[in-house]
């Protein structure tokens, strides 16, 4: 087991086909008499710039994308919802442009390409995860729009692609990280101890974490701004944890696993936060555009990957508590109906629809879920200092 603050990522920082980021190279101008450019070495500066860039890019391109989606009749079809209650409740949303995740994920990818270092292996992994799951979600949304008799990819098809991507990332993590610790798992609040409990099952574990988070965020994306807001709070928390993990002094002080290169994931999380804020400009109630599976599958997969990279996948249960509860509500509802002759635990699932049927206003549900999400994120970070 690793002790407090010991490094985990033996091969996380390496040069290959990927060069360092465009803006990181500007720090060399500081050595040529332009001291201000030396600041581009700083992770926090690049994180702020990535967030601002992604936010502004969404604001600029958002109206154009919405107009394009409207012209192509890429609108939500509320008649395909499983519940008659939801069909009537969300009738006003019928025809609202969907597949807006192209904007959200596209802005995130662009900001990552400009501000994060691609010679740190976690960054190209995050980039590939976002891009590949965005394409899976795009294909799913496209089928929904073009095939009246099909509601997107089948469950088996979607899970196949997700597990393929998750398994690939698990293999890469096992390969690039320190061999003695690569398949171990960190137990939260136990002084950076890495427990050798996974071994050969690590790839399966990584797949489950990524697929589970991807689908949990997808299930949460049922009300205007809900998944976007909750993703912001979760991404901020994991961005902070990534910075702690990448900084030897802070990792040792707080008792988290030291992972060289993990601080670059702070920039990845910041880019996602900025893009989410920019997308929220158009996605807040009443939404002008929906992200669709194009956005939600990719966002969830990225969060799962970041948690795996910094060995905080168990913390995901607390930080991403809203996503966990939303997913559990669906699982409980399904098995309750199967095992109890159709009897339900919730009026509707996922959980946010349960509260809708109880008469809660959509904006109030979103606000309250977001408040809980923020509190969980703050509480999780605070526990690191209090343990």
Helix-strand blueprint:
Blueprint: H1 43-71, H2 84-89, H3 101-115, H4 122-146, H5 155-176, E1 185-186, E2 194-195, H6 202-220, H7 226-246, H8 248-254, H9 264-283, H10 292-309, H11 316-319, H12 321-339, H13 351-357, H14 362-386
Antiparallel strand pairs: 1-2
Helix pairs in contact: 1-3, 1-9, 3-4, 3-9, 3-10, 4-5, 4-10, 5-6, 5-10, 6-10, 6-12, 7-9, 7-10, 7-14
Q: β content, as a range?
A: under 5%
What series of H and E elements makes up the topology? HHHHHEEHHHHHHHHH
Which residue ranges are poorly predicted, with pLDDT under 50 across at least 5 consecutive positions?
A: 1-19
Structurally, the number of domains stands at 1
What are the salient characteristics of this protein?
387 residues, two-stranded antiparallel ribbon, 14 helices, 2 strands, disordered N terminus
């Amino acid at each position: 087991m690793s002790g407090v603050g010991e490094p985990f990522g033996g091969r996380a920082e390496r040069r290959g086909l990927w060069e360092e980021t465009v803006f990181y190279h500007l720090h060399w101008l500081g050595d040529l008499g332009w001291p201000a450019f030396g600041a581009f070495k700083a992770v926090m500066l690049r994180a702020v710039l990535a967030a601002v860039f992604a936010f502004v890019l969404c604001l600029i391109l958002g109206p154009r994308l919405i107009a394009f989606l409207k012209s192509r009749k890429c609108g939500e079809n509320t008649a395909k919802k499983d519940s008659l209650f939801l069909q009537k409740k969300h009738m006003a949303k019928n025809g609202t442009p969907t597949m807006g995740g192209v904007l959200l994920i596209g802005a995130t990818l662009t900001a990552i390409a400009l501000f994060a270092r691609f010679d740190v292996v976690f960054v190209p992994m995050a980039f590939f995860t976002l891009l590949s799951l965005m394409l899976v979600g795009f294909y799913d949304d496209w089928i929904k729009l073009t095939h009246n008799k099909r509601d997107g990819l089948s469950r088996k098809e979607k899970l196949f692609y997700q597990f393929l991507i998750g398994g690939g990332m698990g293999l890469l993590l096992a390969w690039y990280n320190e061999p003695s610790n690569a398949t171990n798992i960190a137990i939260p609040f136990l002084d950076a101890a890495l427990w050798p409990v996974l071994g050969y099952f690590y790839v399966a574990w990584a797949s489950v974490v990524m697929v589970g988070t991807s689908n949990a965020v997808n299930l949460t994306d049922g009300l205007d701004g809900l998944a976007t807001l909750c993703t912001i709070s979760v991404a901020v928390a994991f961005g902070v944890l990534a910075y702690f993990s990448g900084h030897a002094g802070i990792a040792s002080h707080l008792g988290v696993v030291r992972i060289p290169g993990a601080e670059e994931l702070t920039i990845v999380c910041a880019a996602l936060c900025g893009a989410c804020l920019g997308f929220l400009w158009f996605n807040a109630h009443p939404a002008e555009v929906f992200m669709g599976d194009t956005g939600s599958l990719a966002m969830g997969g990225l969060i799962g990957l970041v948690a795996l990279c910094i060995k905080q996948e168990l913390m995901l249960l607390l930080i991403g508590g809203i996503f966990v509860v939303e997913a559990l509500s669906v699982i409980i509802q399904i098995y309750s109906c199967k095992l109890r002759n159709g009897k339900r635990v919730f009026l509707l699932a996922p959980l946010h629809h349960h509260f809708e049927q109880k008469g809660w206003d959509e904006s109030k549900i979103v606000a309250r879920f977001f408040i809980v999400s923020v509190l969980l994120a703050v509480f999780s970070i605070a526990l690191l200092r209090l343990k």
